[in-house]
Amino acid sequence: MAEENKNSNTDENSKLIGLVAQFDDPDSLVQACDQARQAGYTKTDAFSPFPVHGIDPALGIKRTILPFIVLGIAVGAVFIGLGMQWYTNGGSLGEFSTDESPVFPGYRFKISGKPYFSLPANIPVTFEVIVLSSAFATFFGMWFLNKLPMLSNPLHRISRFKRATNDKFFLMIEQADEQFDRGSTEAQLNEWGAVSIDECRRDLTDNNLPSWLRLFALMGAILLLLPPVAIFRAMGMTSRAPRLHVVPDMDWQDKSKTQTLSPIMMNDRYLFADERVMRAPVDGSVARGQLDADTELYQGIKSDYVPTVSLTTPQGSVRTGLGTQDEAEAAPPVEDVSMYITEFPKEITVDEALVKRGQVRFNIYCAACHGYAANGDGLVNQRAVALAATGKAQWTSAKSLHDATVSNAEKNPLGRIFETISNGRGTMGPYGAQIPTADRWAIVAYVKALQETGIKPVVAVSDDESGEGSEANDTGESASTPEDKTQPTP
Amino acid sequence: MHETRPAKITSPITTLNGGHLRTAPVALIVGAIGIGVAIMLSLGSEEGLKRFMFTYLTSFCFVLSISVGCLFFVTIMHLTRAGWSVTVRRVAELYAMCALGLGILFIPILATVISGSDMIYSWNQGGWTMHDLTAAEKLEFKTVANRPPLEQMKYQFLNQNFFTIRVIAYFLAWGGMAWFFLSNSLKQDKTGDKNLTSRMQAFSAPLMILFAVTVVFSSFDMEMSLSALWFSTMFPVYFFAGAFLSALCTILLTGLWLQKTGRVTDEITIDHYHDLGKLMQGFVIFWGYIAFSQFLLIWYANIPEETFWYNLRINQPGWMTLSILLLVGHLFIPFFLLMGRGLRRNRKMLAFSAIFILAMHWVDHYWLIMPQMNPEANLYTLTGMGIVIDLACMVGVIAVYIAMFCMIAGNRSLVPLKDPRLGEALNHEVH
Amino acid sequence: MATVNPILDNTYDDAGERSPLILGGLDYAGVTDEVCGIWEADKPPKIWFVVLGAAISLLMVLGGCVGHLLMDGVGVWGNNNPAYWGWPIVNFVFWVGIGHAGTLISAILFLFRQNWRTSINRAAEAMTIFAVVCAGLFPGVHIGRVWVFYWLFPIPTEHLAMWPNFRSPLLWDVFAVSTYATVSILFWYMGMVPDIATFRDRCTTKIGKFVYGLLSLGWTGSARAWHRYEIAYTILAALATPLVLSVHTIVSFDFAVSQVPGWHTTIFPPYFVAGAIFSGFAMVVTLLVPVRKLYGLENLITIRHLENMNKIIMATGMMVGTAYGIEFFIAWYSGVPYESYAFYNRAFGNYWWAYWIMVSCNVMIPQVFWIKWCRTTPWFMVIICVFVNIGMWFERFVITITSLCRDFVPSSWAYFHPTWVDILMLIGSFGLFFTLFTLFCRFLPVIAMAEVKGVMPRPKDH
User: Fold this and answer.
1) Angle between helices B270-301 and A119-145 (to 10 degrees)
2) DSSP E strands, A142-271
């Protein structure tokens, strides 16, 4: 049990730190701690493989100040988190920036209509900053208060003590305690039920760092400094070396930009006479799938039509949705309605499938303005009309397709509807590039079906119809939802 | 080292001990006076009876959320086989049982719906998708077929008959659940049969599903549909967070009151209050989390179908003050009031925090309900005499609720006498 | 080694007493021996090498894919108009979700004093960190030019002359996930220090002594240290609990602050969190059942532990199911045609198959856990949990892809097609995950010995 009694606590080789008594179960440890405290010992510590319930009062351990440290850090983090976001996104400290004392400017840009500094959107990051700072404070604060990490501890030299992290329990009474007496303390410990008692001695002979460690540490520190030094050096100087290309095929792509000079030179002259990088097609060549000689199918114009008067050809005039009414009025097109076909081209089979297809395409491309029921009350139109009323936009109302000028087969034969979809009309933009030919005919079929079923606008207030430029005005009171749709029967 | 208490009830008094015979009539009279005063004053106000009905709904939803929260408390404690909470569970059981009685208090509100009035729920008559209607249009919209499509669609859910059926179903479900737990628990007081505990545990899982479904739809029906156009999937969670928080406060306050008046002095210990305080703080944060998430998502996406509801509460001068009060009073102040071990083990501080949170929870329901009464009016047009109406009604409804609790508690024990986990609860210690 | 207790079933339900957490009559030394035995064995079991080999092969596949991606750009993925967020974000949310169980078990169950957590929390925390590593990979490589990743952080540099946009939910994600990874590692490491000290004290090799000695920071098990340690652990748990909620909440904000139908719904934050816990627990069960079998840890990770986890899986599964229901109801109730269409399209549109895989795996299949046999039979619960994880992957797939492929502009509607890189990266991420987990099982304490000992009955009580 007890080691041989030594008269002096310190000899030349080692110094007595304290006595370490072993116990076999947590309850005896708590009891012993309690008795040690009652006996007046203050410099005591217990060691156990897990936190033993009830040992804090038995040893007289005061509650740690750690929670208050964390609270302080957390409160500080609120300001750091918010301040960082205010400064980087909303701050205007940049205004104080001068050449002599540059201040990093706040990077102020509007995103989705939110203010530069918008508190609700800044809460999540602030929260994360608080949690991160508090967690660091807890983690490092705990080790700091516990005086860990400790590289060397004489306790680990006791072989029995290795079971302190396994299944045994230890009580140490330090030599520094006023009550400590080598003999009587050991007797007391035995009395309190210690299974065995060891001396904890600090080795005085071997307490210097190994010499190689110093050298290694010094070299390591120098080596660690090299990368930052290199980075700072590179940042502070200019270089003539070409920049590093990490992804070469992104930096050098095998292509020429459109509308540039040809890179190919021969004998100091451009390869091509026009010096351009792009080649114009050979005269008369037609790209695959673009032979649209059949005017009935591709333009809605009778194949045997011979222009009698000079016309503005529909293909020639480029119209966009941005065109204003003034322009449209300035050049009223002269139009020969008789040139348009009145029947579907022979390639198009009119059946239920075509009308169904037309409905789908109509709802995608046309309904936004003309409305699902073609009343001219599409949501875009409603919104634009409302904006136009306040003077915030210019807008010509989308036409109701049930309007007499549109639904009249003589004034507006099938070919003309097709032409309208393809090239636009008035302020309506052209859709020829977006919708394949067959689909445009399908829309024509669907429009005719809508007109035949005669769905009338809910509220339709028509202006004077005095020509192409003026559109029927549908203020669109009622909200149109998909449920409004009526299935047309072809 | 520490002594283990035997699993025995040692308090001399474990019932209301006749206190209910004194308290209940007084509370009922106070309730009648409060509600009466509120009705009288509101009849004289600009909005008439509508003013009363809205403030009545506010106070009703406040006490209802306490009962619903207590029901959840009981169910979750059985579901998780909790041992620590046994001694405070009976109080929660009794409050949960009040849900059935609250069904009676809901009759005036239901009556407005059945009578076809749009005094509270504007969907009960047509025209809520439009702004002001002329009398002729209102008449026309009485026929469902004449209404706009959106209203017609919602009418399938929001109509007199279906609403009535649903509300009755909620109260029956809550009452049935509460009765199941209370009766089995009372039976165990007599027999001490531990199989009853197993039985309640086994049933708590499916009953939790029933609870979830009823709370989801009741929150939609009773509060969200006040603004018939507005919708938020988070709303039931918001309702639940506040409900459980106020239930914890109520259990804690009731425990303190019972012990102060010399009942169950030994069974509920400071450690139980400590744990209730921890849960309260947790749910203060949870409420803040839910409220903030709901707000942030609607604010950020900025879709007019949703923002108008917050617009009313944030951009109107009076309601904005109330919104900020909620943020500070329902989240920040309680968070710090319950921070730390010292505050959570101090009965006076806990009582103060609980009363403070309950008051804020009433404000929360006020904030949810009152702006819908007259979206044109701001808070200041409601104050003045309005404050008296609100407070009188609140005092009245709470008094009736207390009377209900006393009558249900009666001479029944306020702690489970022979719960198999009683020992665990009595020896409960928070480190 | 302690004597083997013949009673190996602690799943009985007796209201009168608490069933034991640890079986087999283990004492303190017995627990240490069982856990340290894994690492002290001369050679790990053969199956360990097989798993590690397979995992490393998959990891190499992942490495190849990442290399290919970095060299050729993110075009190698199937992300294209209109589904610009394809599988990478699906995989990201999937892995982050799995990464929630660890902190939940450690922190939330700790605060709720659920003592049974002690046997499983260490492995779950490790799993959390590895899952977050897998999760971070996907957005990490998605930024394209990974070598300038530091632009994500507010670093004052003159040459950049700009700051990140703090109003963007994607930046919130950067902060949330990196905070979560950091705090999880602190929490995991702090919890492990006493156990590493045990390893240090039992270690016989010189390298082991040095490494574990360094990692254990000189821990002695002093009562004064334990006191601060326990308080710090509680504070970290109290910090990690809202943190774990916030992380998946912010992930859900990525979707929900937008105006895309099917993404913008206010219940997303708690619903995503419930889903994350759901998938995380399923992954813990999937991992722990083979681990306990392989290393003979049946006395420490008992059937009751698994049963409790299965109950939580069932509960969170039903929360997720309730959220599906509320979403559907409100989509109809709102009367907004886009919203209604988005949900109709999920269930009956092009992606109906994905939706119904999700519903059956997440809501219907876990219902078998109502039956006791199903939740107490290890091989069976693994099958169910694999289904749960398949379902949760599909949940993220359904949310991301169906909504994007049916956006407001019908002319751009399309059908999403993943590329082989997409598929191999998903499979490869499992390689990364299992490589790390297999190494963890071999070299670190799989079970929190100190915590298990703390909740064991004291010897004198017997």
Assistant:
1) 140
2) 169-174, 196-203, 265-266, 269-270
Cβ <8 Å between C218 and A148? yes
Q: Is A64 on the interface with C (CB under 8 A)?
A: yes
CB within 8 Å: C269 and B289: yes
Predicted confidence (pLDDT) per residue in C42-100, tens digit? 888 999 999 999 999 999 999 999 999 988 888 899 998 888 888 999 999 999 999 98
Separation between Cα atoms, residue B163 and residue B124, nearest integer Å: 10
Q: Is the preceding omega at residue C44 within 30 degrees of 0, hence cis?
A: no
**Domain extents for chain A?**
12-204, 295-484
For the segment C360-400, what is each residue's pLDDT rounded down to a tens digit?
999 999 999 999 999 999 999 999 999 999 999 999 999 99
Phi then psi for B220, rounded to 5 degrees?
-60, -50
CB nearest B233 (choices: C16, C113, C265): C265
Q: Would the CA dihedral through A363, A367, A370, A375 be positive or negative?
A: positive
Nearest to C283 by CA among C406, C147, C134: C134
Top-confidence range, A77-81, A320-324, A474-478, B11-15: A77-81
Q: What is the arithmetic mean of pLDDT over A447-461?
A: 67
Q: Is A51 on the interface with B (CB under 8 A)?
A: no
**Which CATH number is associated with domain A295-484?**
1.10.760.10
- The segments of chain B whose pLDDT lies below 70 read 1-3, 126-135, 137-142, 377-378, 380-383
CB-CB neighbors (< 8 A) of B195 in chain C: 15
Beta strands A196-203; A169-174: pairing state: unpaired
For chain C, the 3-state helix, strand and coil shares in percent, each to the nearest 5, are 75, 0, 25
Q: Count CB-CB contacts under 10 A for residue B236.
A: 23
Note whether C158 contacts B: Cβ–Cβ < 8 A. Answer: no
DSSP notation for C381-438: HHHHHHHHHHHHHHHHHIIIIIHHHT-S-GGG-------HHHHHHHHHHHHHHHHHHH
Phi, psi of A17 (to 5 degrees): -95, -40
**Which residues of A fall within a CB distance of 8 Å from B296?**
120-121, 123
Determine which of C1, C22, C28, C336 to mutate to test the interface with A (most A C-beta atoms within 10 Å): C28
Q: Which two tokens stand for residue A390?
A: 């306040």
Instruction: For residue A194, give Cα distances in angstroms to A1, A43, A58, A259.
Output: 9, 18, 16, 94
Domain residue spans of chain C:
28-142+182-461
β-pair partners for A257: none
Query: B375 is written with which tokens?
Result: 């979206």
Q: Which residues touch C172 (CB under 8 Å, ≥6 apart)?
A: A124, A125, A128, C250, C253
Nearest CA in chain C to A482: C337
**C358 contacts: CB under 8 Å, gap ≥ 6:** C391, C394, C395, C397, C398
Cβ C15–B293 below 8 Å, yes or no?
Answer: no
The two structure tokens encoding residue C72: 């050729």
Whole-prediction pTM: 0.84
List residues bridging with A301 in a β-sheet: A340
A31 touches chain C (CB under 8 A): no
Measured between alpha carbons, how far is residue C250 from residues B284, C90, C180 in Å?
20, 15, 12
Calculate helix-pair angle for C223-256, A66-85, nearest 10 degrees. Answer: 30
The pLDDT of residue A461 is: 38
A21 and C CB contact within 8 Å = no
Whether ipTM exceeds 0.90: yes
